[in-house]
Write a structure and sequence with these properties.
Blueprint (H helix, E strand, L loop, with lengths): L3 H19 L5 H6 L5 E8 L3 E2 L3 H11 L4 E4 L6 E2 L4 E8 H29 L8 E3 L9 H10 L13 E3 L1 H7 L2 H11 L6 E5 L2 H10 L3 E5 L3 H11 L4 E5 L8 H4 L5 E3 L2 H4 L6 E8 L1
Parallel strand pairs: 6-11, 7-8, 8-9, 9-10, 10-11
Antiparallel strand pairs: 1-5, 1-12, 2-4, 3-5
Helix pairs in contact: 1-3, 3-4, 4-5, 6-7, 7-8, 8-9
Length: 284
C-alpha cells in the first residue's frame, strides 16, 4: 500500500462505515445551526510536534460527503511538523465540514500518532541492520490505516493478515503436537514460495525449530541472556525475530543481539494520538 489509488480501492467502504457510525440519520446539531448550505473554510492546525500520516484519508472523508469540497494540504504523509504549523485548509459547504470533522480527525490523529511513535523507535535502530516490524494487534477494521501509518513512520509491516503468511504460534504448535510436527505440516501444506515462521519460547523449542527447517524463528518473551544462547544455536540457519513486550523504553537491549527483526505490538496498540485540530471555521 504505497499510493492513493491503492488506498482509495481499499478504504472508501471503511470510511463510509465510520461516517455512518457517526451520522446514523442526520447531524442534528449542524442542521440546527446551518439549515442551508453556505461556503466556508477551516484550518487544520498541528498542536504538537510529530510525523504526519493519513492526510489522504482525512481528505477523503470530506470528499465522500461532498465531492465539491476542497482540501489544500501544505504537507505530505511522512513529513515532520511542529506545534502551531498550518497543515492545510478545508473549503466548501460548511455543513459537510462540520459533519466530517470528527471522523476525519479521528483517522488523522490516530494514524499520525502511530507514525510518530514508530518513528521515535525506528530512530533508535538507525545504523543497525535490524528492521522494526508491526503485528496484527490492530484495531478491528482499521488495520489498513494503522499498518500504513507504521510504514509512514519508518517501520515495516509484518504479515497483513492470516492469509498473508505462515506464523506458527504456541497454540498452533499445541494443536499440531509439537514444534517438529507443526513445521513439517506447514511445509507440506503451504506453497513452496512461502516462508515458515515459528514462535519459540525456550531453547529446546529453538533447537527443534532449527532441525525441522523453519525459515524464521521468533524468540518470544525470552530474557536477553537466553536470546543470546538461542541466537548462537540458530547461527545462520534461519532468520531471527525477537518479540514480546518490546517498547520504546526497552528496545535498545535487543539491538546488539544480532537479530534480523524486532516486532512490537505497541506500535499500533499503544501509540498515543497526535494532537491535531480543525479550527477557525468561518463563512466565505
Amino acid at each position: 500500500m504505497n499510493n492513493n489509488i491503492t488506498m482509495t480501492l481499499n478504504v472508501d467502504e471503511l470510511i463510509l462505515s465510520a461516517l455512518r457510525e457517526d451520522i446514523s440519520s442526520e447531524d442534528v446539531t449542524t442542521n440546527a445551526v446551518m439549515p442551508k448550505g453556505r461556503r466556508g473554510e477551516a484550518q487544520l492546525i498541528c498542536k504538537q510536534d510529530g510525523i504526519l500520516s493519513g492526510l489522504f484519508v482525512f481528505q477523503r472523508v470530506f470528499e465522500l460527503l461532498d465531492q465539491d469540497i476542497e482540501v489544500l494540504l501544505h504537507f505530505q504523509d511522512g513529513d515532520s511538523v511542529r506545534k502551531g504549523e498550518l497543515i492545510g485548509t478545508v473549503t466548501g459547504d460548511i455543513r459537510a465540514i462540520l459533519s466530517g470533522e470528527r471522523t476525519a480527525l479521528n483517522y488523522l490523529q490516530r494514524m499520525s500518532g502511530i507514525a510518530t511513535y514508530t518513528h521515535s523507535i525506528a530512530m533508535l535502530l538507525e545504523g543497525s541492520k535490524v528492521k522494526l516490524l508491526d503485528t496484527r494487534k490492530t484495531t478491528p477494521n482499521n488495520r489498513i490505516f494503522e499498518k500504513y501509518a507504521v510504514k509512514t513512520g519508518g517501520g515495516y509491516n509484518h504479515r497483513y493478515n492470516l492469509s498473508d503468511g505462515v506464523l506458527l504460534k504456541d497454540n498452533h504448535i499445541g494443536a499440531a503436537g509439537g514444534v517438529k510436527q507443526a513445521v513439517e505440516m506447514a511445509k507440506e501444506y503451504a506453497p513452496f514460495v512461502r516462508k515458515i515462521e515459528i514462535e519459540c519460547e525456550s531453547l529446546e523449542m529453538v533447537k527443534e525449530a532449527v532441525e525441522a527447517g523453519a525459515d524464521i524463528i521468533m524468540l518470544d518473551n525470552m530474557g536477553v541472556d537466553e536470546m543470546r544462547e538461542a541466537i548462537a544455536v540458530i547461527g545462520k540457519r534461519a532468520e531471527i525475530e525477537c518479540s514480546g513486550n518490546v517498547t520504546k523504553e526497552n528496545i535498545e537491549r535487543y539491538i546488539s543481539l544480532g537479530v534480523d527483526y524486532i516486532s512490537s505490538g505497541a506500535l499500533t496498540h499503544s501509540a498515543p494520538i497526535m494532537d491535531i485540530s480543525l479550527k477557525n471555521l468561518h463563512a466565505l
